[in-house]
Design goal:
109 residues, 6-stranded antiparallel beta barrel, 13% helix
């Protein structure tokens, strides 16, 4: 299940990059000059505003699967169990609905 067209961004070296789509295992970015190549690994910060008061964000490492005309496909590396569960919960809600989320709509339990 993938989330498409959200306001998610990742920050690499404090530079924002819009996310095309994402899931609990990885994400896809638009290509950009100097972007990472296949098999490159890098640290990033994922930021997704859920409401005006609630932001889902995390830091992780990623590995580039491909960098071609479809974008930069990356997979997350070594997510802690708690973060993986939170990510799964957000994907489950956002991947099945296309509505504005009320505060508290996503439970990490």
């Amino acid at each position: 299940q993938r989330v498409v067209g959200s306001d998610a961004q990742i920050f690499v070296d404090d530079t924002p990059h819009p996310v095309i789509d994402w899931s609990e295992t990885g994400l896809r970015l638009e290509r950009f000059p100097g972007g990472p190549k296949a098999n490159d690994r890098f640290a990033f910060r994922f930021v997704l505003p859920l409401t005006s008061e609630d932001v889902f964000e995390f830091d992780a490492w990623a590995e580039v699967i491909h960098n071609d005309e479809s974008g930069i496909g990356i997979r997350y590396l070594s997510l802690e169990e708690n973060l993986a569960a939170r990510l799964r919960a957000v994907v489950r809600v956002m991947g099945t609905t296309d509505v504005t989320l009320p505060k508290g709509a996503i439970s990490y339990d």
